[in-house]
Amino acid sequence: MSRVLTFVIVAFMVCAVSNVAFAADAAAAGYVDWAKVIFCAVSIFAAGMCMGIGTLGTGLGMGSATAGAAEAVARNPEAHGKIMLTMMVGLAMTESIAIYALVVTLIILYANPFKAIIMG
Questions:
Q1: Which tens digits make up the pLDDT trace of 39-78?
Q2: CA atoms of 71 and 94, how far apart (whole Å)
Q3: Which residues, in sequence order, are CB contacts of 52 under 8 Å at separation 6+?
Q4: CATH number for the domain harbouring residue 108
Q5: Are 23 and 80 within one domain?
Q6: Residue 99 pLDDT level (bands cut at 50, 70, 90)
Q7: Which terminus of the chain, N or C, has less C-beta within 10 A?
Q8: Which phi and psi (to 5°) does residue 30 adopt?
């Protein structure tokens, strides 16, 4: 436990000291466009929320489908093939929601239509 605590303290110190080192560059620049900073921060937050909510729903749906299929096979082992085939098709459809969330996240981060307006 002491190694983990030491690592956390050292990592915190490195982060704290690096801010002072990089502040010299910001002081030389003199002006910070806060609209750009806020735009980047909100874009990153929105991308994180999109992936988080999208994959949370997908994970819950896939777990529910798998549990239902396992219960159905336990009740009727003769229908194993049809149940598994239907479950696999359903899981593929459910997984597409996570892929759509990934696509929206990548659009928010890299192809944002407002990036040209805000960033100039």
A1: 889 999 999 999 999 999 999 999 999 999 999 999 999 9
A2: 19
A3: none
A4: 1.20.20.10
A5: no
A6: very high
A7: N
A8: 85, -40
Statement to judge: residues 24 and 65 lie in one domain: no
What's the first-to-final CA gap in the chain, in angstroms? 49
Residue 37 has a pLDDT of 85
Residue 50 burial (CB count, 10 A):
20
Domain that includes residue 77, residue range: 33-119
List CB contacts of 73: < 8 A, sequence separation 6 or more.
Answer: 79, 80, 83, 84
3 state DSSP class of 51: helix
Which residues, 6+ apart, have CB-to-CB distance to 37 below 8 Å?
none
If residue 30 lies in a helix (H) or strand (E), which one and from where to where?
none
Asked if 40 and 5 sit in the same domain, the reply is no
Residues 24 and 60 in one domain: no
Beta-carbon-side half-sphere exposure of residue 10 (alpha carbons within 13 Å): 6
Same domain, 70 and 83: yes
